[in-house]
Here is the input.
Amino acid sequence: MKIAVCIKRVPEMDGTFRIAASGAAVDEAGLKFDMSDFDGYAVEAALQMTEKLGAGEVHVVSLGPDIVQETLRKALSMGCARATQLKCDVVPYDPFAIASALAAELQGGAYDLVLFGKMSIDSANGAVGFMVAELLGLPMVHGCSKLDVAGGQGTARREIEGGGEMMTFSLPAVVSIDEGIARPRYPSLKGIMAAKKKPLDVKPAQLGPVALTVERMELPAARPPGRIIGEGAAVVPELVRLLQTEAKVL
Here is the structure.
């Protein structure tokens, strides 16, 4: 079983965000970065599959400047066998430009599975996996909460409103991973040390044409300050009135 997992370096969402001077991007100063949450689930799911089968290996691929090597090394320290950086100075917003670069790298890699996170937690497009599947001519299953493979077939479960959806598909295939499938393991000290010696290839990204750009970004409006209307049971009617007429949550 040979699995490729495409991962993305994203800002941690508990930081304080500001708009960059360009007005069309996030100011990265002071932000911490890590592997996108759903990508971490995908890496863990891939590792567990190869461990269960007792054979195979997991490759990770990421697109971006040299700083993405930190994220790739983290995946290697979790247990992935090798990594590839598709180098570009700036990651384009256009999902098709990104998908073109990934597909060019994955084509001919003889992967049984290509995994993505359900979406990256910064742009939340969830489009790149579909586009890579189309470019590679492979079936795509989106948002799996369970995934198994055996005998050249895959079985997956997707969570839908009020229930689940079980499906089968032939390999090779592209699958995106939802939360709930597996919690990413913490890299061990042994894994961190081993990751330093694992292969990390750097190749120029063969980006597709960029037809979509962000023109402007806006932060949400600041919340109004809190208000103390009193204490005790006597203020409950006024509190209910405010929740109904101002907050409109009742």
In short: The longest strand covers residues 140-150. The radius of gyration is 22 Å. Helices lie at 37-53, 68-78, 95-106, 128-136, 189-195, 236-245.
